[in-house]
Amino acid sequence: MQAFTIFGGTGDLTFRKLLPAFYNMVASGDSFSYQIVIIGRRPYTTEKYCEIARDWVKDFARLDYDEEKFQKLTSYIDYYHMDFTVQDDYSGLDAYYKKRDLKKHIFYFAVAPRFFSVIAHGLTKVENACHGKVIIEKPFGEDLASAHELNKQLESFFSPEGIFRIDHYLGKEMVRNIQTIRFSNPIFSNLWNSHYIECVQISAPEDLGIGTRGGYYDASGALRDMVQNHLFQILSIIAMEWPESPEKLFDAQIRVLRSLRPAKDVDIKNSLVLGQYEGYQNEKLVKPNSNTETFAALRLFIDNERWWGTPFYIRTGKKLSQREIKIAIIFRTSFLQKAAPNILIIKVQPSEGVYLQFNIKKPGDTDDIVQAKMDFSQSDCINRLNTPEAYERLLKACMNDNRSWFSRWEQIELCWKYINELVEKFHAANLPVAKYAPGSQGPKESDNLLEAAGHKWI
Ligand code: BG6
User: Fold this and answer.
1) What SS3 state is found at 52?
2) pLDDT at 379 (0 to 100)
């Protein structure tokens, strides 16, 4: 038996994503050889913890709830009560592992980034911990400098091959699908450049607010929480050259990140809009006068031969009108004035699929042009329950040493650098964080980013 230890075992991430992922693995009958050690500060017994976990699993697991399967999951769980900020407590943890003969380790740091190094330091007291693997949640650090420091500390304890920097968007079915859609369809791959593509839009609005995560979110904001990691992953996969093998994926992504038009050369007013939903400052654990953005919209350019002149728009935010992720590719229009652009939309969630819009003659005795809208929904026609969810895949990938599903340090570094420079320029220009009404599409200023070029959010 190996140990899979989760620091932050009573947090939102563990309940909402990790335990449901473990439940799915156990319920699908996968062979499972891990003792799941939940580290938490609250004085729970394992029984009490599992009692609390039950409802989360019911609500968030992909597979239907089954009491017997849940009991099977609980047979792997052990709650270990400790304050992970207290260094002396790690000797007790070491004794616990020894007593249960747990010598091989995966550690999951499901905690705020400021605790990563505290835990890594504590683990020096645990025999064999340094030969184990560690999964680090995003954001990796709080800015470029802290990310550097964190990386240094982690690499001084774990081997570089043992560090798995997770970005769960890399495990999403339709994010994995982008490469296939792009490269195995000549009707797209041959047109995938600025000669034929007018603009690209990556939208990831969310309807929920920050819930109980005010402490974390207020120090982070939409740019660090969503853009610097998840949405830059999507952007770089959409824009990259063909990676000849899975191992080359990150090199291809990195080349895109290196080609982003440097922040110093962008017209910041027309490149970045930040917003905050009304009522955010009254949320729990948020500073009363907080200026943290809960919405971000960006217009970026990739200055390479393929993408010269094509804008990439990105937007995300909390408390917007709906939750979805979609990537829209808007092609240039034909010489026929009345023809609308062809639009390809890769629907990432909640429904998964591909939408394609093209022009046809209006049926009947007319030459008018109308748009045909083909909407393929993978979630409706393929049994989606058979497809593992992002965290499930990524946990398995780590267990199987498959590193191609995790972010590389160089990627993280480039993304931080870019976002930092953009934010600095935004503040230097004294631009305001615009307010927006909950349930809306975000601040109207985000439309202006597109209007100058005659574009509109899809
Ligand atoms: C997390 C962010 O990484 O991703 C959250 O911290 C966000 O703020 C979440 O809500 C979105 O993930 P998903 O899988 O629901 O799109």
Assistant:
1) helix
2) 78
Bridge partners, residue 331, by sequence: 197
350 Cα–ligand 1 center, Å: 13
Residue 230 a catalytic site member: yes
State in Å: Cα 228 to ligand 1 middle.
13
Burial of 74 (0-12, 13-18, 19+ CB in 10 A): buried
Tokens found for residue 293: 């953005």
Alpha-carbon distance of 45 to 156, in angstroms, equals 34
| CA–CA separation, 290 and 300 (whole Å) | 27
Per-residue pLDDT tens digits for 120-160: 999 999 999 999 999 998 888 888 898 999 899 899 999 99
- DSSP one-letter string for 112-137: -GGGHHHHHHHGGGSTTGGGSEEEEP
Is 343 in contact with 355 (CB distance < 8 Å)? yes
Which member of 105, 121, 131, 230 is catalytic?
Answer: 230
| Ligand 1-lining residues (CB < 6 angstroms) | 168, 206, 225
Per-residue pLDDT, 385: 60
Cis? peptide before 186, omega within 30° of 0: no
- Taking the C-alpha atoms of residue 337 and residue 224, their distance in angstroms, rounded to an integer, is 42
Classify residue 160 as exposed, middle or buried by CB count within 10 Å of its CB (0-12, 13-18, 19+): exposed
Residues of the chain with pLDDT under 50: none
Q: If you compute the radius of gyration of the chain from its CA atoms, what whole number of angstroms results?
A: 23
* Distance between CA atoms of residues 329 and 63, nearest Å: 33
DSSP letters for 206-268: -SS--TT-HHHHHTTHHIIIIIIIIIHHHHHHHHPPPPSSGGGHHHHHHHHHHHBPPGGGS-G
Q: What are phi and psi of 366, to 5 degrees?
A: -155, 155
Q: What is the pTM of this model?
A: 0.91
CA of 48 to the centre of ligand 1 (A): 27
Q: What is the pLDDT of residue 383?
A: 62
- Which of 230, 234, 315, 351, when mutated, tests ligand 1's pocket best, judged by the most ligand atoms within 8 Å of its CB? 230
Q: What is the DSSP letter of 56?
A: H
Q: Which two tokens stand for residue 192?
A: 């995938």
pLDDT, tens digit, for every residue of 157-200? 999 999 999 999 999 999 999 999 999 999 999 999 999 999 99
